[in-house]
Amino acid sequence: MLSKDVINELSSAAGQENVFTDTSRLSIYSRGSIDSDSSLPEIGIRATGEDQISRIMKVAYRHSIPVVARGGGSSPTGAVVPRKGGIVIDMRGMNRISVSIENGYVEAQAGATLEEVDAECRRAGFFFPPDPSSVSVATVGGAINENSGGMRCARFGVVKDWVLKLNTVMPDGRKLSFGESTYKNRAGYNMVGIIVGSEGTLCLVTSAVLKIMPLPAGLVRMAGFFDTLEDAGETIFSIRREGVNPYILEFADMEGIKAANSIRGWNYPEAEGGMVLVDLDITGGDRESRTRKVREIFARNSAREVVVAEDASKEAELFEIRRIAFAAPGKLFTGFIDGDIVVPLSRIKEAIVEVAAIRSEHGVYIATCGHAGDGNLHPQIGADRDDTDAWKRALEASDEINRMAIRLGGSISGEHGIGTQKQQLLVEQFRERDQSDVLFLMKEVKKAFDSRNIMNPGKFGLGEEET
Amino acid sequence: MKVAQTQHSRLDELMELLDSESKKCISCGFCDSVCPTYAASGYDPVITARGRAQLGRKLYEGYEEGALDEVSVSDSFYSCLGCHACVHVCPTGVDAGRVSEIGRMIVASSESLKQQRKAEAGMIVHAVVKSGNPLGLAKECSKWAEGLAFNDGSDTLLYTGSMYQLMGYSAGLSSMRRRFGNRASALGLAMTSRSVTALRFLSRRAVDKDINSAMVGSLLRIYHLLRNSGVEFDYLGSDEPYPGTFLYDLGYEASFRTYARKVSSKFREKRYRQIVTVDPHTHRMLTEIYPLYADMSGINVKYYLDLIDSSKLGRNGRKIMFHEPCLFSMSGSPYDGPKRVLGNVSDVKLPSRSGKRTHCCGGPVELIDGDLAASVSEKRARQLEEAECNGCETVTACPVCYSNLSGTTEVKDISQILSEAVTSVP
């Protein structure tokens, strides 16, 4: 419990007008997305600049107060839940963006959303490739701390592949930057790579320099709807194997399509095998010739229906099916478990089919979607939390899916991270791979950055329960 | 006793509605990306759609636990613009605008939340109930029609709902509040004392004459456009009742029900079979809300643009950047009349935020939070100015949008473009 004196110190460091202590506002800061785990912070502070954050961190360090930096608050793993109370620093107001075409990068403050960053880049004919489906709410700081992925990652990789430099405030309030505004840099360890994906446990990212790319000449978006999961899985595999190199390659199962039809009033085929969504950036020729190869693959795998978007509105609809599929259980159930497994590309069909088998075996609702092009699936589980038996079966199904990913040579998280939700599973994965010493090294790194354990404590396999 | 039971029962129903709408929220925050009040409030976590949906859940939980008064919701629900941009990006179909609407009804009807009611809302509701006009200005609202001919025997009524007429006054009051601060301003005193006379006096003193004159001009043009299209209609002049939009929007449902029944009785007594509306807010009230609370059977409500004879309008070569009304593009039943009719005479372009992602003008919260409304409208004005459209004129089709945007950027009402496109006068 923060004393009145400490709150006054923080208010004076942050500016009284930026400080919230009322329960209503703190309750919004108490949780992330999907996962209903919540914990009230004791104070919420709106960030206004690096100097202000430095002053806040000095107070937090002096009194050993836990600090969680919050961007869009869309993490589904509990990574933004202030488990130990303390301070939530809301970064959303720090959102300045500056594009440098000459240098091929964008410099953005941590609170800018990826959509805002992308929009600024597009004005100059460029774009920022990583695009989580939460692109409209996920912030630069959040995406860096979660090493986010997204639809275009099958082609362009995840956030870690695009970060050149980070400006941060360390737990004791020192300002420290990592990396350079250059495309290459061999000065020292890859410290940027350690901070990217660290889930806010090391330091507080205030701004970043990110690589950008010229926009593609034009995209064609198309979708195939399949009667069996095997056909859909084989289609994904064939597109990869036969050298199509799609711009995006996504999957949404029947439950996801049903959810989109129900919420938006559409009538897309609610096929057992779901939808495979493909964007192509092939240049030259007409639309017919540019889409021929994928059409052939769709036909060979018995697609029930193929839709090629003829205008922006149809493109948006197909994209929206995939986006809604991610949140499908939210409309139907009071409990929602986020899934985020990744498997080697050759095992994607197996993984899709196994998830369906787990669904039948446990009698639970699962809507599976994902970035099939990079082996990343989101089996989203829904059940009513007050139905003890149903919720227990949902948790069991979730564990089984994660263990299946480990068994197939994959990982329990492709892009959403560990947070509070997957700490035990992380330990299991390391143990299974004979990598338990990695966790030891992670804890040593944590100590080197944050000796007082104030940065987002109790998360990422670094919680006291694991030490 | 019977009344108390009825009120209790309605609160239960409202709570069920609140639960049903808000429990689907997974707190993903997608709605924050389109909610105009989020950025305008400096990213206040409750002055945005996600905050409203989440506080809706908290309010319901508080109700279930018998701790309703411990949940502070007022700033959040009353700051909602009701534009409904949120529902179009929500992956689970939550309408935070609807959550706020139900939430305001709960605040207005629950004794436990009495302390959270807005003084401004109470004053406006009092003025509507007492004088039939939110600012006590029923007479002023009919002045635009002095000297015009109407058809007393017509079964068609031109119903302005006083919206165009009130804009100059509400803009003036809002400006006064922002200049002097709410607590210190005389308006604040009037609100506290609930004096309609004082409110009327202040409104007259504060009136923004430019907006007032532009609004009168719009009504006159609408009148002539309809007459030129051969439409005959009656007008009630100073007897025209305000539709009670504020009563409903501010959550005073019981007062609204009584009021709406009075208004619909008036329509029925006069045996009107067709009512012609001229602004989106009044149109939405009569087509979507009134049928839920009052008897509107046998009365056909038409928007004036649907009655304009397009054969009497010619293409004028003008380029238009069109700011769509939220109520026609994002909430309730979509209506494309303004875009369609404008498209018949001009080259119509839309800003990047349009259609189901239109950005509100900020107007709906002008009287509750003038600073927030101004911040929202400034952002929208910038979006309209930055849209790449050389030589475009910015056009609105709603008096609230005109009033709010005209403070920052040059706008024209749709009636002006259409009037200037008339080629054939009988």
Structural features, described:
The complex is a heterodimer of chains A (467) and B (426). Chain A has 467 residues and is α+β, with helices and mostly antiparallel strands. In chain A, 37% of the residues lie in helices and 20% in strands. In chain A, α9 crosses α11 and α13 packs antiparallel against α14. The longest helix of chain A has 20 residues. Chain A is globular, with a radius of gyration of 22 Å. The mean pLDDT of chain A is 95. With 426 residues, chain B is of the alpha/beta class. In chain B, 49% of the residues lie in helices and 6% in strands. Chain B has 18 helices and seven strands. Chain B has a four-stranded parallel beta sheet with strand order 5-4-6-7. Chain B has a three-stranded parallel beta sheet with strand order 1-2-3. In chain B, α1 runs antiparallel to α5 and α7 runs parallel beside α17. The longest helix of chain B has 21 residues. The chains are: A alpha+beta (467), B alpha/beta (426). At the A-B interface, α2, α11 and α12 of A face α3 of B.
The span between the termini of chain A is 24 Å
Q: Would you count the extended β strands of chain A for me?
A: 19
Total E-strand runs of chain B: 7
Shape of chain B: globular
> What value does the Rg of chain A take, in angstroms?
22 Å
The poorly predicted ranges of chain A are none
Helix content of chain A: 25-40%
Question: Quick one: which chains have the greatest interface?
Answer: A-B, 37 and 31 residues
Question: Sheet with the most strands of chain A?
Answer: 8 strands, antiparallel
Q: Largest sheet of chain B, described in full?
A: 4 strands, parallel
Strand-residue proportion of chain A: 15-25%
Name the structural class of chain A: alpha+beta
The oligomeric state is: heterodimer
Q: Percent of residues of chain B in helical segments?
A: 40-55%
Arithmetic mean of pLDDT of chain A: 95
If helices are DSSP runs of H or I spanning 4 or more residues, what is the number of helices of chain A? 16
Low-confidence stretches of chain B: 1-5
Q: What is the beta-strand fraction of chain B?
A: 5-15%
- Count of discrete alpha- or pi-helical segments spanning 4 or more residues of chain B: 18
Overall 3D geometry of chain A? globular
